[in-house]
């Protein structure tokens, strides 16, 4: 088959030609075919024959009278599934009874702590000096997410496998928070006398804000800060805790605070891709699979095993659930068009193929 | 000359509605689910029963397809072509079932070539009046003599109106292989129109 192969079989196996004879081609393409036909009188006959063959191949649809009964069958199965998934949730709740209680207790402590430091009168018996070095630490495990609400209306959402530390008591003024992992901050801005700054400390430096929405991710060797609203200052610190570099971020910018020896970088991003996890989603836009893997490995403490290393370049676009590994695997399988299976802590991509070859 | 110019995107008639329908399905609309089912049930079944030569298994496959879609409705995007998307998923479901039934895990070319190896009856092919009655038999015979893969390609192209690119996705082969299959199929069929007079 070459471009000069002027045969019926060559014409009809081209989508462009078929589009033209069916009248769905663009004007530009139509003109090209028109010119091509007019260039040689023999082509007119050829096109005529091709059209006749094309128009005569038509498969007749079968008569199906059971659409409605099959649709009823589908709804029956959907209802069954909904009921069984309800009882499944009940089972899970019972199985994880003790850990749930523990989580509630930790959360209660955390909430009490947060309320406490925003409402110092609760702790009126303790002096500022006594509580100066007291901190509360809040952690999340695989696939877990927590939201902390400060009494001034500010919210901090903690992503899976993360740890946040903050003073157990708060007497007004600037607030310091330490973060490992990922959190989304929605900090209320106060003006005038009530103005206070909030500083998020990470290994590589700190992020200083007055009031704003931003995401901080320290899962990797560097810390990534994505600004949704307002403005923040990112500071890089050396081992002596001295600020060596700082940058002001504007909305929609992502900053990477690297480890010692490299400079802070800033670039424009679609911030919603980085904050979707707060709504239990992971959104990807032509993101290579290896980036997706990096993210998920941090969220669930799993490892990926690719059947073919080439797969790591597969661009992933779409929305995947962030809070349910099973559903995530199902969705990834669909996006990848490759089998994805979980085996203990290992997620195999394209594993079915290799299993077949092994046999 | 321009035979291999850039392929245009295949437009399904009323595809704007289809996008809206798909979106409301993704948002959990059961009405949209019913609508999609009613639109595609017949044409999926026409394809499926030829793939597995078992109408009940083909129907079960449609149930599985829509159950699977519903389970993940809030995590899927809008495909370029809903029809192509459904066919890709449906074919995969049916083949997986068929493989399990046959207890064959190795998918080899020979096996895949045979999966669509069915014979079309005269009634299954609509013959336009450009071809006289006797030619109808010739065309039916000609199509039935094609390989299973060629028949399946023609079916996807002429029954479902898929583009070469979409057919490649369904058959999990590359674009050029689809073209080669079509080329060989038409080469075998073109003799039927050899004697048709051109209309001036």
UniProtKB/TrEMBL annotation, chain B:
CDD domains: Sigma70_r4 (cd06171). SUPFAM superfamilies: Sigma2 domain of RNA polymerase sigma factors (SSF88946), Sigma3 and sigma4 domains of RNA polymerase sigma factors (SSF88659). Keywords: Sigma factor, Transcription, Transcription regulation. Residues 138-189 form the RNA polymerase sigma factor 70 region 4 type domain. Pfam families: Sigma70_r4_2. One of its GO terms (molecular function) is sigma factor activity. One of its GO terms (biological process) is DNA-templated transcription initiation. The keyword Transcription regulation applies. Belongs to the sigma-70 factor family. ECF subfamily. This is RNA polymerase sigma factor 70 region 4 type 2 domain-containing protein. It comes from Fodinibius salipaludis.
């Amino acid at each position: 088959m070459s471009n000069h192969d002027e045969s019926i079989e060559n014409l009809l196996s081209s989508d462009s030609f078929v589009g033209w004879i069916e009248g769905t081609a663009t004007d530009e393409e139509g003109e090209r075919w028109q010119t091509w036909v007019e260039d040689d009188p023999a082509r007119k006959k050829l096109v005529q024959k091709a059209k006749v063959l094309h128009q005569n191949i038509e498969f007749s649809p079968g008569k199906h009278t059971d659409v409605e009964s099959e649709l009823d069958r589908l709804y029956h199965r959907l209802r069954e599934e909904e009921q069984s998934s309800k009882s499944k949730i009940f089972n899970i709740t019972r199985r994880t009874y003790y850990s749930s209680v523990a989580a509630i207790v930790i959360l209660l402590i955390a909430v009490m702590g947060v309320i406490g430091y925003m409402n110092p009168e609760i702790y009126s018996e303790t002096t500022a000096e006594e509580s100066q070095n007291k901190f509360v630490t809040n952690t999340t495990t695989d696939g877990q997410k927590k939201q902390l609400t400060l009494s001034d209306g500010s919210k901090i959402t903690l992503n899976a496998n993360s740890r946040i530390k903050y003073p157990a008591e708060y007497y007004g003024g600037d607030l310091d928070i330490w973060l490992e992992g990922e959190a989304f901050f929605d900090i209320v801005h106060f003006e005038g006398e009530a103005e206070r700054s909030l500083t998020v400390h990470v290994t590589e430096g700190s992020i200083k804000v007055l009031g704003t929405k931003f995401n901080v991710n320290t899962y990797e060797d560097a810390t990534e800060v994505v600004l949704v609203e307002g403005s923040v200052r990112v500071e890089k610190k050396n081992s002596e805790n001295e600020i060596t570099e700082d940058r002001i971020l504007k909305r929609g910018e992502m900053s990477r605070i690297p480890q010692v020896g490299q400079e802070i970088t800033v670039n424009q991003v679609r911030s919603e891709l980085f904050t979707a996890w707060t709504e239990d989603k992971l959104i990807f836009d032509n993101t290579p699979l290896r980036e997706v893997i990096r993210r998920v490995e941090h969220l669930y403490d799993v490892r990926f095993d690719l059947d073919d290393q080439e797969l790591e370049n597969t661009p992933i676009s779409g929305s995947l659930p962030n809070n349910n590994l099973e559903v995530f695997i199902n969705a990834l399988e669909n996006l990848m068009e490759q089998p994805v299976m979980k085996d203990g802590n290992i997620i195999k991509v394209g594993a079915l193929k290799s299993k077949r070859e092994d046999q | 000359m321009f035979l291999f110019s850039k392929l245009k995107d295949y437009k399904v008639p009323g595809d704007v509605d289809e996008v809206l329908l798909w979106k409301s399905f993704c948002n959990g609309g059961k009405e949209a689910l019913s609508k999609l089912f009613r639109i595609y049930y017949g044409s999926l079944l026409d394809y499926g029963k030829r793939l597995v030569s078992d109408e009940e298994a083909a129907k079960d496959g449609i149930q599985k397809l829509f159950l699977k879609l519903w389970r993940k409705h809030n995590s899927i995007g809008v495909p370029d072509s809903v029809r192509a998307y459904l066919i890709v998923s449906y074919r995969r479901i049916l083949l997986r079932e068929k493989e399990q039934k046959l207890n064959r895990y190795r998918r080899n070319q020979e096996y895949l070539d045979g999966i669509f190896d069915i014979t079309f009856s005269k009634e299954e092919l609509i013959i336009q009046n450009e071809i006289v009655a006797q030619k109808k038999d010739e065309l039916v015979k000609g199509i039935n003599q094609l390989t299973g893969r060629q028949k399946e390609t023609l079916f996807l192209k002429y029954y479902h109106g898929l583009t070469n690119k979409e057919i490649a996705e369904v058959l999990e082969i590359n674009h050029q292989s689809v073209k080669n299959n079509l080329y060989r199929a038409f080469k075998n069929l073109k003799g039927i129109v050899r004697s048709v007079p051109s209309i001036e």
